[in-house]
Automatic annotation (TrEMBL):
Organism ancestry: Bacteria, Pseudomonadati, Pseudomonadota, Alphaproteobacteria, Acetobacterales
GO molecular function terms noted in the UniProt entry: hydrolase activity, acting on carbon-nitrogen (but not peptide) bonds, in linear amides; metal ion binding
Originating species: Teichococcus aestuarii
InterPro entries hit by this protein: Creatininase-like_sf (IPR024087), Creatininase/forma_Hydrolase (IPR003785)
The keyword Ribonucleoprotein is assigned to this record: no
Superkingdom, taxonomy of origin: Bacteria
Any matching Pfam family: Creatininase
Keywords linked to the UniProt accession: Hydrolase, Metal-binding, Zinc
Keyword Metal-binding: yes
GO terms (BP aspect): riboflavin biosynthetic process
Family classification: Belongs to the creatininase superfamily.
The name this protein goes by in its record: Creatininase
Entry cofactors: Zn(2+)
Length: 233
């Protein structure tokens, strides 16, 4: 159940019988020809579809993350790492104060990984709380399904090209792009990173068949739902 479809009384009623919630983390950054909100769209959608049969409340996705390397691409928004961690901590504090004790953080952006440490610190300070940090796209079964179709899947390539992350009337380029040197990329300032990457795809094909993408998505939803349902022992 999405929080935007609930009122406070319904949340209070939920907390009388359960203490689980989902917090998606996203970002707003370049994804080549795809939406700037790819990470937020995917984190929010996988959270809602995973939680819906269980009735677990899903909070709105945090749309800004840590992505300074893409600042040369217009539309990218980054938070300082300190700011992002403070925001995540404040959200967790609010959920805990309300009564949530089992919180699944569904992360859609690799740059947000420092929030994993923030979750561990939060649990150290709140021993009655359990937080699972779930990078949905590289969870074991999901990434295995990705590699089943194509061993080369990177940022802004086919593996993020779902029907709901594309922009209308914009066709993906044909063929595949050489894989970027990510080690070199990490050492470059934003303008140089843009010169290296060009359109922003890190390499590989731009698009695969939608039947394959929907199969990967079904695995991702099922894997996320399993953690939400049974991953608290």
């Amino acid at each position: 159940m999405r929080i935007d479809a609930m009122n406070w009384m319904q949340v209070e009623e939920w907390l009388r019988r359960d203490d689980r919630a989902v917090l998606p983390l996203g970002s707003t950054e370049q994804h080549a020809q795809l939406s700037l909100a790819v990470d937020s769209i995917l984190a929010g959608r996988v959270s809602v579809e995973a939680a819906e049969p269980l009735g677990v409340p899903v909070f709105p996705v945090l749309p800004y993350g840590i992505t300074p390397g893409f600042l040369a691409y217009p539309g990218t928004v980054t938070l300082r790492a300190e700011t992002h961690l403070r925001v995540v901590r404040d959200v967790l504090e609010s959920l805990h104060r309300t009564g949530f004790r089992r919180i699944l953080v569904v992360n859609g952006h690799g740059g947000n990984d420092p929030a994993r440490a923030a979750a561990l610190e939060f649990m150290a300070d709140h021993p009655d709380c359990r937080i699972r940090f779930h990078n949905w796209w590289n969870a074991p079964r999901t990434i295995a399904r990705v590699r089943h179709y194509d061993p080369v899947g990177t940022h802004a390539s086919w593996m993020e090209n779902f029907p709901w992350t594309r922009l209308p009337n914009l066709a993906a380029p044909d063929g595949a792009k050489p894989v970027a040197d990510t080690e070199r990329l990490r050492a470059l300032p934003p303008a140089a990173a843009r010169r290296l990457l060009g359109d922003g795809n890190f390499g590989g094909r731009y698009q695969r068949d939608d039947a394959e993408m929907l199969d990967i998505w079904a695995v991702a939803v099922a894997e996320t739902r399993e953690i939400l349902a049974e991953g608290w022992a």
